[in-house]
Each structure stands twice: as C-alpha cells, then as structure tokens.
Amino acid sequence: MWRRNPLLQFATFGALLFFAYGLLHDTRTSDANRIELSAADIERIRELWAMQWKRPPTENELQGLVEAHIREEVLYREALAMGLDEGDTVIRRRLAQRITFMAEDLASRVEPTPEELQRHFEAQLDRYLLPARVSFSHIYFSVDRRGDEAESDARAALAHPETARGDPFMLQSDFPSRTQQEVRELFGVDFARALFEVEPADWRGPIASSYGLHLVRVHERTEGRKPELSEVRDRVRNDLLDLRRREADKALVDSLKERYEIVVEGRPRQ
C-alpha cells in the first residue's frame, strides 16, 4: 500500500527529512570541526569526473579533487558560521530547490501501474487525441517576383500542373504527413485552414500563404482519432510522472507549512 501511495510517501518523506535534519544538526554541533570523506564520497567524486571528462582521473587529479572538496567544505562551514547565507536570495532558492528535487525524485521512483496509466489516459484523453494529417505537394508563385500577374499565372498553370514552372521556394515542394499545426507554423493560419479543406484529388488553388500563392495537391489525408494507450504510452507515463512531481512538491510544502505560524501583513493567511 505504501509503495503505491505517492501522497503517503511524500508525507512520510517530510517527516523523515526533518528528523534527519535534527540528527545532522546535533552532529555538526558536537563535532563541528570534523570533516570526513568516506570511500563512497571519494568514489562519487571519481565518478563525477569520469562522467565529465569521459575517463577516470589520475591519482594526482583525484588528490586535487579531494583537496578542492575539502577546501569548499571548510569555506562553506565558515560562511555558515559567519551568517553569510542570511539574506542571500540565491542561496535561499538553491536550498529550497534541493528539498524540492528530493521530493520530486521520490515521486519519480514509483513506476506507474498499468491501471494508473489507463486511468490517467482516459481522464486526459483530449491531450492524446491523434490530429488529422495531410501529405501534399505545392507549386509556388511569388507575388514579390510576379506582382499582379502571380494569381493569373497560377490559375493558368492549374490547367497543366505537371509542366507548370513555379518560382524557387525556400522550403521543399513535398510535405509528407503534416498536422494542421505544423502546416500553420510553416505557411500561416489561412493556408493551413484551406489546405485541410482540400480533398485528396488533382491540383487545386491558388491558395495564399505568408509567402505568396500556391497550387496544392493533397495526396493523402488521415482523420484525427482516439489512439490506443499502447500508441501513446510513453507520453502518458511522462505526463503522469510529471503530475506526481508537482503533487509531491505541493504535498511537501503544505505539510511543512503546518510547522510554522505564517503572518503576512496586509493579507490574511490562506
């Protein structure tokens, strides 16, 4: 039950987090001048170097990394002792982010069950509808180059599109399987709307775009439809994990806020 209840995990995590903080605080108070690097710490330093440089560090490089880590820890503790962290917005946000990342990481570790994926898929079905698509070709007529004759040239070419000579176009002439949104981003809103009203058949047009005029031929059109879960499983999983991370953040903050009396002048507590 606990493994499959993220909200219960988040609440437990919050309690453990502050219990651990209490232990850590006591340890640092009683042994504030002790800095210890375990074998696991050194191995982690070695792995981080290897990830960045694609090779393990030499013994001299590793020694330098350890010394740099010790130097950073010494300066960090002295800065805390001097209160240099107080009033520093960057440090405050960074520490707050680290707690948030811990909660979100916990939420991501619980793999959704098939039943949870199915429920999320059905509840958010509008997000996963597969859009209509068209495959089309076009012949371009530049208004900048041809002026007022662009439309008459395009209409004349419609009678013999196979031999029509259009103008050079910055994009390709054939577009396989594009959604209306994709066409809109390339050619503009009006062109995309008109294109998706064209039935697969012979050449049609001219249709105006943000570039000029086009004769178009739709080769194939696929209507939008509801997919099977298997077709969009990765998207559903990622969306569900993202939702869990956001819920984890809210649940953690809400539980921790109960530890404080929050007073904001000029605004009642919500």
Question: Please, could you describe this protein's structure?
Answer:
- This protein has 270 residues and is an alpha+beta fold.
- It has helices at 6-30, 39-53, 59-81, 89-109, 114-123, 125-128, 143-146, 149-157, 180-187, 189-195, 233-257, and strands spanning 133-141, 174-179, 204-208, 213-222.
- The protein has two domains: 2-122 and 233-257, no CATH class; 131-222, Chitinase A, domain 3 (Roll), CATH 3.10.50.40.
- The chain contains eleven helices and four strands.
- It has a four-stranded antiparallel β-sheet with strand order 2-1-4-3.
- A hairpin with a 4-residue loop joins strand 3 and strand 4 (213-222).
- Residues 18-30 have low confidence and may be disordered.
Q: Could you give a short description of this structure?
A:
The protein has helices at 6-30, 39-53, 59-81, 89-109, 114-123, 125-128, 143-146, 149-157, 180-187, 189-195, 233-257, and strands at 133-141, 174-179, 204-208, 213-222. By secondary structure, the chain is an alpha+beta fold.
In N-to-C order, the SSE pattern is HHHHHHEHHEHHEEH
Tell me the number of structural domains: 2
- The helicity comes to 55-70%
* Average predicted local confidence, pLDDT: 80
Gyration radius over CA: 31 Å
Number of helices: 11
Beta-strand percentage range: 5-15%
Shape label = elongated
The count of β-strands is 4
Model regions low in confidence, pLDDT < 50 over at least 5 residues: 18-30
**N-to-C CA distance:** 32 Å
How is the biggest beta sheet arranged? 4 strands, antiparallel
